[in-house]
Amino acid sequence: MTSFVCAEKPYGWFRFENISTDFEPQLIAPRYEGAIISSGNPVGGDDLARLGYKQGIVKRQGNSMTYRQEGWGGFSYTVSMSWKRIGASVVEGVWSISAQHKDSPVSPTARSITDNALKLSFAADLKSHAGWWKNFWEKSSIQLPDKVLEKQWYLEQYKFGSVARSDAPPISLQAIWTADNGRIPPWKGDFHHDLNTQLSYWPAYSANHLQEAMGYINHLEKNKDNYLRYTQTYFGFDGLAVPGVTTLDGTEMGGWIQYSLSPTVSSWLAQHYYLQWRYSRDRDFLKNKAYPWIKQTAVLLENLTHKDASGFRKLEISASPEINDNSLEAWFPENTNYDLALMKFTFSKAAELSTELGLTKESSHWQQILNEFGDYALTDNNQLKFAPSMDYNQSHRHFSNMMAIHPLGLIKWEDGDRAQSIIRNSIK
To answer: What phi, psi does 170 have (nearest 5°)?
Structure first.
């Protein structure tokens, strides 16, 4: 069997060779009805039956099969598969998935896509598909003394190229690699903006895949009005906040409040606007997307922060992703290094980009706000803490105490002895 998903078209091909004359492909639908065995398990995933959807039906017409599944709130999706026999022992076919929401423009159906695709050539589409990947790999390469790390770089580039497109939704928690086990994906397969989506797009910039990275930006721009609604509803201020856990249309989903409703989520997302600008030098993007996003984020943070007794600007309460879980101790009365780094980044880049656009008055204002933040919380041996009241005392996948080192680059090796001491002692 040979199969591939077209790199630039909304369908995939399969080809079976040396098969019997009675061979026929089958379309097996997920089970949305039945006993609920797994429930309340965010990691393993709940059974699909928990959704309460009425089971769809697979319908066959000639050499085509179509499955339509009704979801919630006017959402539905359709899976279609069509095939043809080539001689006595070869079957070629195509499949596609389409989704529709009652409030969205009507999109081409999976059935119409497969019907049209089957008129084309497996070989021609495979050649076009291979050409896209050839162009993708020619964009960048790397050579490292450590061949394990080098291999990992290429694996991550391959995964990125498999899912990232400028006109597709951004990479979610499991992307296309969700287990086919009849369950809802872990953590519902949603968008987690406290590390997961950001990390998924890190391969784009230095590897010269800016077009694919625009899928992330386009998603954020499309949902911006929804984020502004959320900002006013939850924070009650002007500016721009983004929920840390969202649906496809950017609506907040809840979760541990310290991270799912954090005030600095839009700051971390702002870095991707900044990186897209720095690597592309697209001034239209700078003027119409990058600076407006960063400016609105800065407006919110200026509104949310105040000066403490020492004259330093701070949030009323602060957090660091998943440190102390969902307990009361997850809140800190002083800025965590995570929030502090993101706020410093926001005002620093707001000043930089407004200068680039000739907005000197705005730049001076953002620089003034930036200067009102204090230093990072450090131990006596220059190790970054989680917060002034909490040392780095536990290993954690987020490493949120070191945001200023990476990915934000606010503490750099080339800054001198003190910066090198902080970097060395924080990562060892």
So the answer is: -70, 170
Instruction: State the pTM of this model.
Output: 0.95
H-helix or E-strand spanning residue 232: none
Residue whose structure tokens are 């410093």? 344
- For residues 180 and 202, give the distance between their C-alpha atoms in angstroms, rounded to a whole number: 27
Dihedral over alpha carbons 5, 97, 104, 284 (to 10 degrees):
-10
What type of residue is 150?
E
Chain center to CA of 246: 10
Rounded to 5 degrees, what are φ and ψ at 353? -75, -35
Three-state DSSP class for 345?
A: helix
In 3D space, the residue among 326, 318, 293, 317 whose CA is nearest the CA of residue 403 turns out to be: 318
- pLDDT of the residue at 170: 95
Name the CA dihedral angle for 191, 197, 201, 202, rounded to a multiple of 10 degrees: 180
Question: Are the CB atoms for 158 and 175 separated by under 8 Å?
Answer: no
Residues 250, 227: contact at Cβ < 8 Å?
A: yes
* Per-residue pLDDT tens digits for 45-84: 889 999 999 999 999 999 999 999 999 999 999 999 999 9
Q: What pairs with residue 12 in β-bridges?
A: 5, 95
**392: number of CA atoms within 13 Å, CB side?**
25
Q: Is the bond leading into 407 cis (omega within 30 degrees of zero)?
A: yes
pLDDT in tens, 99-110: 999 888 888 999
Residue ranges of the domains in the chain?
2-136, 144-427
Residue 247 tokens, joined: 């649906």
| CB proximity list for 340: less than 8 A, separation 6 or greater | 318, 373, 374, 376, 377, 404
CATH for the stretch 144-427: 1.50.10.10
Cβ atoms within 10 Å, residue 373: 18
